């Protein structure tokens, strides 16, 4: 009887030892948890003040009473601020350079260039008074405004005129 108890105790300890040895090592677990694909180029921030310490430039942004919904830096130098105004989400972007940084690749039925405070602004939308995109350059920076709901030229002009360049 005593031999049976000793044998069973040893069998239980051996089983436990084998089970702990079957677990993955930390290195193996880390390798398996490595992300697949490219890292997300969008980094979220809590405020515009936070991005000032990260960017290599001082961004010119709209001075507005619209509520800020989110703030991102994309690919290290493109600033994106999403504002909310009466259910319309307004995406403002700026970055060094002269490329179209809007991220919008749609073709619009209405597209024209206009002058707003000495800046040539390309506006686009479904018609003249239903605009959803504005793109322009000023000095060494590109800018864009995108609207989820169409707006008038007056709205776009007001926002651009409230940017201190």
How does this model look, in words?
The protein is an alpha+beta fold. Helix content is 25%, strand content 39%. Strands 1-2-3-4-8-7-6-5 form an eight-stranded antiparallel sheet. The longest helix has 20 residues, at 2-21. The protein is globular, with a radius of gyration of 28 Å. The termini are far apart. The mean pLDDT is 87.
Radius of gyration over all CA atoms, rounded: 28 Å
Work out the helicity level: 10-25%
What order do the strands of the largest sheet run in, or round the barrel if closed?
1-2-3-4-8-7-6-5
- Poorly predicted ranges: none
Distance between the termini: 92 Å
Q: Calculate the mean pLDDT score and round it.
A: 87
- The global form is globular
| Major sheet summary line | 8 strands, antiparallel
- What's the total count of β strands? 8
Q: What structural class results from the helix and strand content?
A: alpha+beta
Question: How many helix segments?
Answer: 4
Order of helices and strands: HHEHEEEEEEEH
Q: What percentage of amino acids are in beta strands?
A: 35-45%
In short:
By secondary structure, the chain is an alpha+beta fold.
List the helices and strands and how they pair.
Layout: H1 2-21, H2 26-32, E1 42-45, H3 48-52, E2 67-74, E3 78-85, E4 88-96, E5 110-116, E6 119-127, E7 130-138, E8 141-151, H4 153-161
Antiparallel strand pairs: 1-2, 2-3, 3-4, 4-8, 5-6, 6-7, 7-8
């Amino acid at each position: 009887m005593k031999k049976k108890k000793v044998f069973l105790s040893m069998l239980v300890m051996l089983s436990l030892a084998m089970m702990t040895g079957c677990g993955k090592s930390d290195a193996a677990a880390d390798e398996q948890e490595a992300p697949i694909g490219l890292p997300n180029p969008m980094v979220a921030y809590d405020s515009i003040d936070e991005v000032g310490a990260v960017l290599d430039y001082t961004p010119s942004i709209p001075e507005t009473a619209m509520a800020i919904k989110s703030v991102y830096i994309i690919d290290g130098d493109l600033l994106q601020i999403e504002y909310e105004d009466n259910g319309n989400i307004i995406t403002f972007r700026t970055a060094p350079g002269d490329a179209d940084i809007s991220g919008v690749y749609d073709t619009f039925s209405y597209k024209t260039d206009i002058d707003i405070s000495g800046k040539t602004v390309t506006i686009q939308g479904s018609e003249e008074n239903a605009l959803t995109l504005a793109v322009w350059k000023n000095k060494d920076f590109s800018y864009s405004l995108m609207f989820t709901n169409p707006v008038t030229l007056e709205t776009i002009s007001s926002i651009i005129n409230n940017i201190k360049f």
